[in-house]
Write a structure and sequence with these properties.
The chain has helices at 15-26, 48-58, 76-79, 85-94, 128-136, 157-164, 203-207, 251-267, 298-314, 331-341; strands spanning 4-7, 31-33, 40-44, 67-69, 99-104, 119-123, 141-142, 170-173, 184-187, 194-197, 214-215, 243-248, 272-276, 288-291, 319-323, 346-348. By secondary structure, it is α/β, with parallel strands linked by helices. The protein binds threonylcarbamoyladenylate (TXA) and magnesium ion.
């Protein structure tokens, strides 16, 4: 299949191209598009064949449900059995934006889209290209992140092309995404709302709207012995090809430890890499040293992390050490993804 690559930024929406992309989805094809979090791989959420195509293009197990993206508040009622008060409040506060809600699905949503579950994940993105595309596609777009399964989510179109070229009908290049980590997922089907995946919308922000919000205990640990409630979180995700270890502790000792380790790997002819910050990166001696940005700018770290993990792959780095980051605000989402990328391998020094 020939993949058509088009460029479009959110300030200059090309309505003819958007309609063409919308028609591809309506006819059962797939289009990758930018959102404020990461690039999505879109298909018609109400068409079971489209969802099957998404799984195939991603190489993703089909028990891992997809998020249904909408562009209008009224469309929530169509895909959800009944909308609880908590969902209305959260939608009012955070939509359009990087929040996904799990609710009981209506009959029009096929089980192929929800991975066989009676619940459905719904999100209304704020990115203009995404919203115009959803409207042009008929209102309901199933979209996982536009990466091949197991690879970091794409934050630039180059990596969508790397993973999806020849597998889907169209890629819309909207430049760099703004947030860089996937949306916060909150499950509203239990008595207490529970965060299944941390993101830009934090527990504190949710608790300003709903009183108590819990967290899935598997979010930051892997020793809880329980399966995560978001089926996708159980897979080894966001993984670079190299072997990644997080090193936590006093910065000076972290730098000493990483330098000792990378030196010994280098003498064994292994290509080594380090993920540091602007404050530390010049102090490392590995083959490839990269900064996620200013250590105090969490938003920048979030935006940079996946790109850096991909670059280590491009440069065939075999052994990677990463500093540990602060977990306040979006920092919790950063560490959740980094821990997964490292298979929870953390050394405390
Ligand atoms: O920011 C995002 O959410 C991006 C952009 C494209 O919108 N999308 C995204 O989709 O991250 P994906 O498919 O890569 O991740 C969806 C996650 C998976 O971990 C999946 O298991 C979980 O959502 N999920 C979907 N439906 C669910 C459901 N009914 N119950 C529990 N978890 C669900
Ligand atoms: Mg994903």
């Amino acid at each position: 299949m020939e993949t058509k690559l088009v460029r479009m930024d959110d300030e200059h929406i090309d309505t003819v191209l958007i309609q063409e992309a919308g028609n591809i989805i309506k006819e059962g094809g797939l289009v990758a598009f930018p959102t404020e979090t990461v690039y999505g791989l879109g298909g018609d959420a109400l068409n079971p064949r489209s969802s099957e195509k998404i799984y195939r293009a991603k190489g993703r197990p089909s028990d891992n449900p997809l998020i249904v993206h909408i562009a209008e508040m009224a469309d929530l009622d169509a895909v959800v059995r009944d909308v609880p008060e908590s969902a209305k409040k959260l939608a009012e506060a955070f939509w359009p934006g990087p929040l996904t809600m799990i609710l009981y699905k209506s009959d029009i949503v096929p089980y192929e889209t929800t991975g066989g579950l009676d619940t459905v994940a719904v999100r209304m993105p704020v990115h203009r290209v995404a919203r115009e595309l959803i409207r042009a596609a008929g209102g309901y777009v199933a979209a996982p992140s536009a990466n091949r399964s197991g690879r970091p989510s794409p934050t630039v179109a180059k990596y969508v092309t790397e993973d999806m070229d020849g597998r889907i009908e169209m890629i819309i290049d909207g430049g760099d995404v703004e947030i860089g980590l996937e949306s916060t997922i909150v499950d509203l089907t239990a008595e207490e709302p529970v965060i299944l995946r941390p993101g830009y919308i934090t527990k504190q922000m949710l608790e300003q709207i709903l009183h108590e919000v819990g967290e899935d205990c598997t979010m930051m640990r892997d020793d809880s012995g329980q399966a995560p409630k978001a089926p996708g979180m159980k897979y080894r995700h966001y993984a670079p090809k190299g072997d990644l270890t997080i090193v936590a502790g006093d910065t000076k000792r972290v730098i000493e430890y990483i330098n000792t380790q990378t030196l010994s790997y280098r003498t064994n002819n292994k290509k080594t890499g380090v993920i540091g910050t602007d404050a530390s990166v010049s102090l490392y001696h590995a083959d490839v040293c990269k900064s996620v940005g200013n250590p105090d700018d969490e938003n920048m770290i979030a935006r940079t992390l996946y790109r850096i993990l991909r670059e280590f792959d491009d440069e065939h780095v075999e052994i990677i050490y990463a500093e540990s980051f602060d977990t306040s605000g979006i920092g919790q989402a950063i560490m959740n993804r980094l821990l997964k990328a490292a298979g929870h391998k953390v050394v405390h020094v």
